[in-house]
């Protein structure tokens, strides 16, 4: 399915009445944030808002306290319950603006109150690794999404792209490659079964 067809599907969802939430899932480096941003741009101002799951990363200080800093990006390094709570707010918008957190890759930290979602926006696009993950508090996420698309590019494309992204954000090339091999790919293995629960798989 090409980008034009995906844009049409997103527009149809946005026009179906009320507030709709589209999820874009997939392994690290699959292109989730790129697709989410392109869909929002295609729909135009006031028609879509992008709310990344990554805004619910635990802060580095908390990861260190919990002994999880060397596994950043694993399911238990996020506030999954907080993410689900925000999705519930977004499904039934208040008259006012709902503010969502973002993840600052330069700081490697979440930043609260970064993304305004106005009450009249018909489509929220949320993207992240664990939208279809069924363990623990993550199981509450899928029922809150109207559709979920799973991105599944070839690993020969995805892994080099992921290493390049880590380098671009300041990691040493050798460290970036080792981190992807040890951490990101372990998370990718956890995410992979979720494609069976997606409404659409994009190869």
TrEMBL record:
Asked if Transferase is a keyword of the record, the answer is: yes
Source organism superkingdom: Bacteria
Question: Which controlled-vocabulary keywords does the entry list?
Answer: Kinase, Transferase
- MF annotations from Gene Ontology: ATP binding; kinase activity
- Which InterPro entries does the protein's record reference? AAA+_ATPase, P-loop_NTPase, PRK/URK
Which is an annotated Pfam family here? PRK
Do you know which SUPFAM superfamilies this protein is assigned to? P-loop containing nucleoside triphosphate hydrolases
AAA+ ATPase domain location is 18-155
This chain belongs to which protein, by name?
A: Nucleoside/nucleotide kinase family protein
PANTHER family of this UniProt entry? URIDINE KINASE (PTHR10285)
Q: Which organism is it from?
A: Streptomyces venezuelae
Q: Is Membrane one of the keywords UniProt gives this record?
A: no
